[in-house]
Write a sequence for this structure.
């Protein structure tokens, strides 16, 4: 087989896992289903009115619209030479010809174009096999015919107008009465939404029609109800399209035109209700503008400029930025590949382009999706952690599901490095579909061969600071529990930390897919490839602990329709009642110096040094003491040369080089940024409990004030730090001030008590001096406490100094 070695898993176990798991369903998005039909039918009106035509005609001479017009004009000239009434013509080609020629008529006022559009409209649905048309294809055809009719209606002979309206109404009735389209178990995917959107357009374009069994109001009502019911199945509240990003853009090929038609004709704005869908595509985009290829998806391009004009300035600017900073507009998915028409009509170059100003990493709670980004630029690092189980889709009979929950995708150096397999070059009918839906085609962990496809996903931790971003999700499947944490360290590299626990011995397989040529030396696995800038990129990974066994296998990947790659992937295998996997994802160019990576693991923990960074995953939350680090956290990260940059996940304490960095009365997850000149910023994962927190402060600094999410909290100055009483999590800011020399007992006053303490320190009388006490007592900064310092302190007390 082309896909190389594929392991056959115990089907009975997989089936058992699916049917013994109680699913958690999502509410999904919703729209107003009240049908609003205009009081009077007017033409043109779907996209523009007569008053707008002069503006459209002006556009054809202004870049970038002029470039699009050249393509449309060329296509219309070709259609003028064809017989668009021929029964040998496919319905796709005829409806496309009708739309292109009708739009050319609007721009040029050429009667030949209008006549050719009329010819196509009169011959609608005369092609062989028209009675068995799939709703997927018919939605495109119907919507294109409706738009063509709207644009040439005023030029039609009344008798032709009657015939064309009858044909459109007949097709609308066919949609309205289709038993599969409206069945609770039929077309419960993108097909149903696309067909309903097309029916909605038909209802609007012949809104005065009264000779059918059902009225346009009924057509529109049924269309809105179907779109609404399917949104509850196919979306989450924060905009995830559970069939994958490809099917979101594919569906929008009919939905976005309908939204514009409804807004223009009936003044009903459904863009507001569906904004999370379009924002989601922006929030999860790769640095190069594509969207991830999870589920049945290609790494495609969302049409941001097609929705931007529907929103207020800030949102519109963001979507125009996504368009301008990305690859533009995908030709594959948009309505019958005549995207240039929609661009000329909708694209608005007057919208100011504005990049996102907020924190680049995002967490979408309902979708269970975390995007860890170092920034919004195309050279930044990106890691996608997918925690979205598509229960609704599976329960409703959806077919675009993959066993990819808790998968990660890694993008850096302008290339996808750790990749999902994708959809397959021929989509759903691809001959290798069994590979693309195989658990091994995804960056997940198998437990006794079982993937977490139908496992409820719980989000345990999300922290996003300026220097580090951490996300952890937990799933129970295969009679075990997996906690998967992902940490992005600046614009440098990423870490994946996995901890599996069970009541009995389990076989655990960590799967990692890379692209390009693979080399494998001990725990170091490297993939070499060429990125979009023709640069030689290396995806360097280290897989720990060394007690796991590594196996190389071959598989397939597909990022675009018709394009397939053969790559090698790696499986790290462990057995036991618990298993830990710590993986470093290091992007770079072939010319970069290698990282200095070595392992310091023990029986109950995995420890690694990466250059000067120390990472340890222990999982059992015991007090670990390793290489001058003590902590009871499940995961610890510490940059040893800059000890202000650290993270602990699910812990109470962190000590390094005998300095207590933090101590909490409750287990928390917290990350620290290096203190600024007079400010110390930390980020604490959200929680709902109260706890005490001690933080070490830099030498010579005291806490002046503190706030959590900009709300003041009291501080208690300690010898080497500050104590706080906190409720909840978020951004913790401690304002710092320079401590006074001689103020050994930190109370803001230099007095006899400080002098006595200085004498005790000089004579080595217990208790042992703290960092602050040594700094405050060493007034002349000569590295020792002696009589000269005592004299200085006396002078400070007497206000001589």
């Amino acid at each position: 087989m082309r896909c190389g070695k594929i392991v056959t898993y115990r089907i009975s176990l997989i089936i058992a896992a699916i049917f013994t798991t109680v699913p958690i369903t999502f509410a999904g998005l919703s729209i107003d289903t009240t049908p609003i039909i205009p009081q009077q039918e007017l033409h043109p009106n779907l996209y523009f009115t007569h008053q707008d035509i002069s503006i459209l005609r002006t556009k054809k001479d202004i870049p970038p619209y002029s470039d699009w017009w050249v393509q449309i004009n060329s296509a219309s000239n070709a259609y003028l030479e064809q017989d668009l009434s021929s029964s040998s013509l496919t319905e796709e080609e005829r409806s496309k010809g009708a739309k292109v020629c009708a739009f050319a008529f609007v721009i040029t006022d050429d009667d030949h174009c209008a006549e050719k559009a009329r010819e196509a409209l009169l011959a609608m649905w005369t092609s062989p096999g028209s009675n068995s048309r799939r709703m997927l294809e018919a939605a495109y055809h119907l919507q294109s015919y409706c738009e063509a009719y709207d644009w040439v209606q005023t030029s039609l002979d009344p008798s032709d107008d009657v015939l064309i309206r009858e044909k459109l109404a007949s097709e609308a009735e066919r949609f309205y009465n289709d038993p599969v389209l409206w069945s609770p178990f039929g077309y419960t995917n993108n097909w149903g939404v696309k067909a309903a959107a097309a029916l909605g357009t038909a209802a609007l374009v012949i809104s005065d029609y009264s000779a059918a069994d059902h009225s346009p109001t009924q057509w529109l009502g049924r269309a809105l109800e179907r779109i609404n019911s399917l949104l509850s199945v196919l979306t989450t509240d924060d905009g995830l399209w559970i069939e994958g990003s490809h099917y979101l853009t594919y569906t929008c090929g009919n939905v976005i035109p309908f939204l514009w038609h409804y807004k223009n004709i009936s003044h009903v704005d459904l863009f507001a209700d569906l904004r999370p869908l379009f924002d989601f595509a922006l929030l999860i985009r790769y640095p190069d503008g594509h969207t991830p290829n999870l589920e049945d998806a290609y790494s495609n391009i969302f049409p941001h400029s097609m929705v931007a004009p529907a929103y207020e300035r800030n949102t519109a600017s963001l979507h125009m930025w996504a368009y301008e900073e990305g690859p533009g507009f995908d030709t594959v998915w948009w309505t019958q590949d005549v995207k240039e028409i929609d661009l000329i009509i909708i694209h608005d170059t007057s919208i100011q382009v504005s990049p996102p100003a907020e924190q680049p990493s995002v967490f979408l709670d309902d979708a269970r999706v975390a995007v860890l980004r170092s920034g919004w630029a195309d050279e930044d690092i990106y890691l996608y952690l997918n925690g979205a189980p598509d229960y609704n889709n599976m329960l409703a009979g959806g077919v675009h599901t993959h066993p990819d929950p808790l998968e990660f995708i890694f993008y850096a150096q302008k290339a996808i490095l750790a990749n999902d397999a994708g959809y397959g070059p021929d989509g759903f009918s691809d001959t290798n579909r069994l590979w693309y839906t195989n658990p091994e085609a995804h960056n997940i962990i198998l437990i006794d061969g079982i993937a977490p496809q139908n496992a409820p996903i719980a989000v345990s931790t999300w922290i996003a600071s300026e220097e580090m971003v951490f996300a952890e999700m937990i799933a129970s499947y295969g009679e075990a529990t997996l906690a998967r944490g992902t940490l992005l360290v600046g614009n440098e590299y990423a870490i994946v930390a996995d901890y599996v626990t069970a009541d009995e011995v389990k076989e655990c397989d960590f799967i990692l897919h890379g692209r390009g040529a693979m080399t494998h030396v001990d725990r170091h696995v490297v993939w070499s490839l060429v990125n979009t800038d023709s640069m030689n990129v290396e995806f360097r990974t280290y897989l720990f602990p060394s007690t796991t066994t590594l196996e190389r296998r071959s598989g397939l990947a597909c990022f675009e329709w018709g394009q397939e790659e053969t790559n090698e992937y790696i499986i790290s295998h462990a057995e036991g009642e618990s298993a830990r996997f710590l993986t470093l994802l290091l992007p770079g160019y072939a010319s970069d110096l290698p990282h200095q990576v070595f392992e310091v693991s023990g029986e109950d923990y995995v420890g690694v040094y990466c250059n000067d960074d120390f990472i340890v995953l222990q999982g059992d939350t015991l007090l670990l003491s390793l290489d001058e680090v003590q902590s009871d956290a499940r995961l610890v990260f510490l940059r040893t040369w800059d000890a202000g940059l650290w993270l602990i996940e699910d812990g109470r304490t962190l000590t390094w080089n005998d300095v207590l960095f933090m101590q909490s009365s409750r287990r928390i997850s917290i990350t620290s940024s290096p203190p600024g000149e007079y400010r110390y910023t930390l980020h604490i994962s959200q929680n709902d409990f109260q706890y005490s927190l001690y933080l070490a402060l830099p030498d010579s600094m005291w806490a002046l004030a503190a706030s959590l999410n900009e709300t003041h909290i009291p501080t208690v100055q300690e010898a080497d730090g500050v104590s706080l009483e906190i409720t909840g999590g978020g951004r913790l800011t401690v304002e710092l001030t320079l401590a006074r020399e001689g103020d050994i007992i930190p109370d803001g006053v230099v007095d006899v008590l400080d002098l006595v303490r200085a004498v005790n320190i000089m004579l080595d009388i217990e208790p042992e001096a703290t960092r602050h006490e040594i700094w405050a007592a060493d007034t002349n900064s000569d590295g020792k406490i002696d009589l000269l310092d005592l004299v200085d302190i006396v002078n400070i007390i007497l206000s001589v100094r």
Residues 1-24 have pLDDT under 50 and may be disordered. The first helix runs from residue 11 to 20. The two ends are 85 Å apart (CA to CA). The longest strand covers residues 563-589.
